[in-house]
Specification:
The protein is built from five helices and eleven strands. The chain is an alpha+beta fold.
Length: about 220
């Protein structure tokens, strides 16, 4: 480094064209570069560095004594002298965590929420909001799940079935219950969002399956 910019030992000031050895003493030197795939441990020479993508969902900051000095937060050391606390802060970003989960759990149709953190456990979709039988069965399902403490989303919009199904896949609630033409026979379509397999089950069987899954997570 023939010349550089360095601090001037005064707030908000820097020295330009500073020459090492002339303008400041050089105590240590070294060669530095960015790490690369395949680099070995600089201490033992073993192993190889592998590079991969990560997701930042939390933070760790060393705050030092900045806030403890301002707040008068201190402790007594081994000699009985008062010293300011060394502080740190640690946290998980909830919004970052949700984004990370969606990045890992999705397909070409939308989100695939893990049951443990999904906003709702079940998504009830009557094919026709104007069909009284479908409406009655869907509302009864919703009320029974609520009674069991299981949160469900009831899509009672007056929309085409395809719109509702696409929205259900996009939102990604773990279990979808489609109330269609066979509702009068006590049969509904049950789909697990993660695998997409459709099963024609009785209302009682669907409730039992969702209840069992809820107890396991």
């Amino acid at each position: 480094m023939p010349s550089g910019v360095c601090g001037a030992n005064e707030a908000d000031y820097h020295v330009r064209r500073a020459v090492p050895g002339r303008d400041f003493a050089v105590h240590r030197t070294g060669d530095f570069r960015n790490a690369r795939e395949g680099d070995r441990c600089p201490r033992c020479g073993q192993g190889e560095l592998r590079l991969g993508r990560g997701i930042e969902v939390g933070h760790v900051f060393k705050l030092g004594t900045k806030y403890s000095e301002a707040l008068g937060a201190a402790y007594l050391d081994a000699e009985g002298r008062e010293r300011p606390l060394l502080m740190g802060c640690y946290g998980i970003g909830v919004s970052r965590l949700l984004a990370a989960i969606v990045e890992q759990r999705h397909d070409d149709k939308g989100i695939v929420w893990p049951a443990a953190i999904a906003p709702y456990r079940a998504h009830i979709v009557p094919v026709s909001a104007r069909d009284e039988t479908q409406k009655r069965v869907a509302e009864a399902l919703y009320e029974e799940l609520a009674r069991l403490g299981i949160e469900a989303l009831l899509d009672d919009r007056d929309e085409r079935a395809g719109v509702k199904f696409n929205d259900a896949d996009l939102i990604g609630i773990p279990y979808r219950i489609v109330v269609g033409k066979q509702a009068g026979e006590g049969l509904v379509e049950y789909t697990v969002r993660a695998d997409g397999e459709k099963r024609l089950l009785t209302v009682q069987d669907v409730i039992a399956r969702i209840r069992e899954a809820a107890a396991a997570t």
